[in-house]
Predict the structure.
Amino acid sequence: MAEPAYLGALDQGTTSTRFLILDRSGHIVASAQQEHAQFYPQPGWVEHDATEILHRTLAVIDQAFAASGLRAGQIAAIGITNQRETTVVWNRITGQPVGRAIVWQDTRTADAVAQYAASGGQDRLRDRTGLPLSTYFSALKLQWILDHLPDPAAAERGDLLFGTMDSFLVWHLTGGVRNGTHLTDVTNASRTQLMHLEQLDWDPELLALFRIPAAMLPRIVPSGALHGTLATTALAGVPIAGILGDQQAALVGQNCFHPGEAKNTYGTGCFLLMNTGPARTSRHGLLTTVAYQFSGQPACYALEGSIAIAGALVQWLRDNLGILERSDAIEALAASVPDNGGIYFVPAFSGLYAPYWQDSARGILAGLTRFTTRAHLARAVLEATAFQTRDVLEAMEQDAGFPLQRLRTDGGMVGNDLLMQFQADILQRDVLRPAMRETTALGAAYAAGLATGYYANQDELTANWRVDKVWSPRIPVQEQERLCRGWKKAVERSFGWLPI
């Protein structure tokens, strides 16, 4: 029998779930995608139905496999990548979540952040976890869920399990209530604020600080390793051999395997990661996170700048204001004017993440005049993503101690040429788009391929990477600096905004 010739990749994102089947060169053979509901029960609250996501996951695996025309034995392994920090608690006996998952964008724990920061400051845990105190991470989300349980002792008894979406899906995909495997990889664990960044294990002091029972936590494993076997779907019997948080998966998919290499993913949010090799503590508002760990190798680390609102702002313009009929119409509308008309949009809908970490910031539209049109607004919406990326990159270069020569990009927004050109202009350096844009799924597949011997080494992955297009700066430095000064003023006005 011929050796398996393909890999599968499950990409469980913030707005949808996809399954892709890829060949050895990283080309997509078949794919399927389904969206899931977003719930906003109160201002600042964002929730998902984890059971709905599980059903979508099972469906897209079967749909993509059927479309491929392959046999299950032709799939060497699958990798999983997932939205990070989104927090699920479920019952070990029934397999049912105790409530909706709390999404990474959710800010309901802002008061708890303030209480913890009152003793030791917002960075009191940074040396241990690489993270500031923030509503972003899983620990306080999990604490909130436990504090609102009808039976708080259930977690202590071990009746309840905690996980990010990777843990929830792997547990169900490997057998669930019968014999599901409860684990998470180091990249997802590093986003909970419960793992010691260098020991790569749950930290007893952090568990005590956040009042989290150890009995409900998953086992921490390398990103690339044999994690279990699919017990359901048409791919039953195929191994799960890779798990990576979505942004770390994109870093692997972009082949950023050497210190100093960086990528930016333009999706619902925006996430810039730079490979640093060993852990490097940020002093300029960035996160230190595990980039990946392949079986038998030490962990590799990255600096990360997270932006909460990027593509989501385009969706807001479409759904809330009705200015766009389709999200992809924004480029033509924005390109109908030569510049932003002097307006700046700071999309601090749920505070500002890196490098500011201002939970109390709120969205600001600055510089409006009678001259302003919906086209100027559309342009300001696109430019906001590029400005936020520059803020993060500026902090990253200060932490790293050296400049970034070029930026690799991926995600849904990189098809927008106007945005990519403005990004090059505002960074004053080249911006590259790869030929294969599904780098998040690709990274998960690569991790699974390395773990199973499908790929002999990382050099095989690097050989697959190709450039589709390069944007170089077109505006003079003086114009870039003028635009950035206007942006900085708008950002400052968004801080500490409170309703009257």
Observations:
- The mean pLDDT is 91.
- Residues 200 and 213 are 18 Å apart (CA to CA).
